[in-house]
Design a protein that fits this description.
Order of helices and strands: HHHHHHHHHH
Low-confidence stretches: 1-12
Strand content: under 5%
Structural class: mainly alpha
Shape: flat
Mean pLDDT: 83
Radius of gyration: 26 Å
């Protein structure tokens, strides 16, 4: 039986992230109330996952080396990765000096990402301050920042490795040989930079084209009917659209 607006029990208010402006008043009110109720229940579940993580940490510290994996497998059928995620959440709470209630208010997936090695402290602090301040938390934006940070760290590590390899390669070379090698490397770097810039421009062009296409579809007078058809078609719409685009490109 579908849940009606009246059946959703009131719970304490929280900051919501979804944009409800495009919904009619009744639907928006129902969706908001449901979102708050679901968040409340998910919050209770997260409280348990923090406590589970605490128990896992305590047992892991006591069990003989190598027995922890056997224990979680025998008792819960839990993968070591899941256990590590749960324990990493607890370690994040302790190392970051984060209140447990604050951590429980952060989506579980995001907690695991924040607890990963080398995540900048400023990202963790930003999330904690947003939650403690009752501000809406846009998880995709935070995950994007973490991904960018990982890319930058990987790029820095690759650059350091490249410089180390270059130093090793030039060791024992004469000044003329070094100059020649550096000139060749500069030429190679310039080509790689040009290629990267070209690929970046192509990606931006594709992204802009996608945004323009979406804007064009949204501008249709029958947009709501279009959305209804897409919902009804499901994955068949993706297949039909891909086929249509492919045929159009062939005939262009």
């Amino acid at each position: 039986m579908p849940l009606t607006f009246k059946q959703i029990q009131p719970v304490p208010a929280v900051a919501l992230s979804y944009s409800y402006a495009g919904l009619d008043a009744e639907t928006a009110a129902c969706a908001k109330k449901a979102a708050i109720a679901i968040r409340h229940r998910l919050g209770e579940a997260q409280a348990h996952f923090i406590e589970i993580g605490k128990d896992l940490v305590a047992v892991k510290e006591k069990l003989p080396h190598g027995e922890f994996t056997n224990w979680i497998d025998a008792e819960f059928g839990m993968s070591i990765r899941t256990a590590q995620n749960l324990m990493s959440a607890v370690r994040l709470m302790h190392s970051g000096g984060i209140d447990q209630k604050t951590l429980e208010a952060i989506p579980q997936k995001l907690v695991y990402e924040l607890a990963a090695p080398k995540v900048p402290a400023e990202i963790v602090i930003e999330v904690v301050e947003a939650v403690e301040g009752g501000k809406p938390l846009h998880v995709p934006d935070v995950l994007h920042k973490i991904a960018i940070s990982k890319q930058e760290q990987a790029a820095l590590k690759a650059k350091e490795a490249k410089l180390k390899a270059k130093a090793a390669k030039l060791k024992g070379k004469s000044p003329d040989e070094i100059a020649k090698a550096e000139k060749a490397q500069a030429k190679k770097d310039a080509k790689e930079a040009e290629k990267a810039a070209s690929e970046a421009a192509a990606r931006e062009a594709r992204k802009q084209a996608a945004n323009d296409a979406v804007a064009m579809i949204k501008g249709l007078s029958a947009y709501s009917q279009f959305l209804a058809l897409v919902r009804n078609a499901g994955w068949e719409f993706d297949r039909a659209l891909a086929k249509e685009v492919q045929e159009a490109m062939v005939n262009a």
